[in-house]
Amino acid sequence: MKKKLFSRSAEREKETIPNFIAELKKSADFLCYLNHTSLNPYMICYYRPLIDGEIVHRDVLPHFNRDLLKTIKELKSKLSIENVKISQDPNEMREKLLQGYILLQLISDEENYLLVPAPLHKERQVSLPEVEFSVVGPKEAFVESLDANLNLIRKRLPTPQLKVKEIEIGSLSSTKVAILYMEEITNDQYVETLSQRLESVEFDQVIDSSYLTQMIEDNSRSLFPQLIDTERPDRVAASLAEGKVTFLVDGSPHAVTGPTTLVEFFSAFEDYFLSWHIASFFRLVRIFAVSFSIFATPVYVAVITYHYELIPKDLLGTLVSSRSQIPFPPVLEAIFLEITIELLREAGARLPTKVGQTIGIVGGIVIGTASVEAGLTSNVLLIIVALSALGSFTTPVYRMGNTIRILRFPFIIFAQFWGLLGIMICTCFVLTHLLRLTSLGSPYMAPIYPPRIPDLKDALFRLPFSRQSLRPMQLRTKNPVRFNVKRDKQNKDIDE
């Protein structure tokens, strides 16, 4: 195998430029032609889909008919374009042509070739966030262009402390990846850890940031996401100011930040645009909704199967009448309804927007009503499953919502075998797993465990900004102070 690789590299080194161009001509979108009618006869080669024709005809070709040119250096001196290179290396030419360069040769100077950048930029305009939409706050979302995304972040952090490190990943795609951090704030360990993991990735193509997220997470076998992906530039700017690291992938409209904690997945960035009382209330509602989404159906299965004595007398008659005609045990009834809800979700997500919304609403009503009337499910369980589905939708981060959806099924199975004891056993397994998880080496359950009392000011609830003078302790930042508390008190209104 090593001999084959060595022979291929040797062939590359011996490859001549005419043979290299002849090989590229086999592709229909590669153009290469000679012009002998010009004042300076020349050859031009490029990939048609990658080139901006206006740059070629406006800034390059007119020079061949204006002055008499004898060498490529003379042509280079007349071009008012940056990053123009003279080259004799076929490997460099191949790489640059695929990046949107044009290859030029003067017939009078056959030994040298000129590489001129003329890339065609086609990108989507900055639009509204679709996944993390907020009523209050900025209405900008990342797009697929790396430079445009960096611009959105630089606008919010106009400081030289913000550093960008670019690398290329993918043997075929050569995808640009930018690592962002605040030099005087972020702990160097997180920057080195993220850089090392990204640079060690070996894959042929990287299409989206989610590819890399799966490859560099601390525990790739875990259901729980260990990095936050977001489409909001304001959220990324806030994370960088806290001392986190972020990476962006060219072609992906999502940024990935870390290290993160479990409680961050239940805090929407809109919380910071609302008063702290309302934001804290909404966070507690989300946590309750997610807990209800996980435990409601398993508790129903456990109580109906093993623990009738826990049902209040006033409610017992309703449950008995709702299940009197049901031929299936509670576990099959619950799994049937849960899978039906998941099918409706997938159908609504894969169909066009307007059709998907109709399918979700009408399908839920029709299937739910029909299953109750047919005696396949009880109306009480139907209400519980519907509320559980609504609870899982309250998670602001999409990946965590998927985790909550899947997590219900093992709890239902444990409830069927051991009742409430099974639910407790499954809960212990999940908590043990969460306590062992890390994000870029940082504890996943912080600030709950290990306990970080000062960090609780922005965890399960959010205190006023005046109480958040320090950055999170778990990030171990170089500069933990956000603002001077004493100076802030001195600057209060005189009326106060």
UniProtKB/TrEMBL annotation:
<comment type="similarity">
    <text>Belongs to the GerABKA family.</text>
</comment>
<dbReference type="GO" id="GO:0009847">
    <property type="term" value="P:spore germination"/>
</dbReference>
<keyword id="KW-0812">Transmembrane</keyword>
<feature type="transmembrane region" description="Helical">
    <location>
        <begin position="380"/>
        <end position="399"/>
    </location>
</feature>
<keyword id="KW-1133">Transmembrane helix</keyword>
<dbReference type="InterPro" id="IPR004995">
    <property type="entry name" value="Spore_Ger"/>
</dbReference>
<dbReference type="GO" id="GO:0005886">
    <property type="term" value="C:plasma membrane"/>
</dbReference>
<dbReference type="InterPro" id="IPR050768">
    <property type="entry name" value="UPF0353/GerABKA_families"/>
</dbReference>
<keyword id="KW-0472">Membrane</keyword>
<feature type="transmembrane region" description="Helical">
    <location>
        <begin position="411"/>
        <end position="435"/>
    </location>
</feature>
<protein>
    <submittedName>
        <fullName>Spore germination protein</fullName>
    </submittedName>
</protein>
<feature type="transmembrane region" description="Helical">
    <location>
        <begin position="284"/>
        <end position="306"/>
    </location>
</feature>
<dbReference type="Pfam" id="PF03323">
    <property type="entry name" value="GerA"/>
</dbReference>
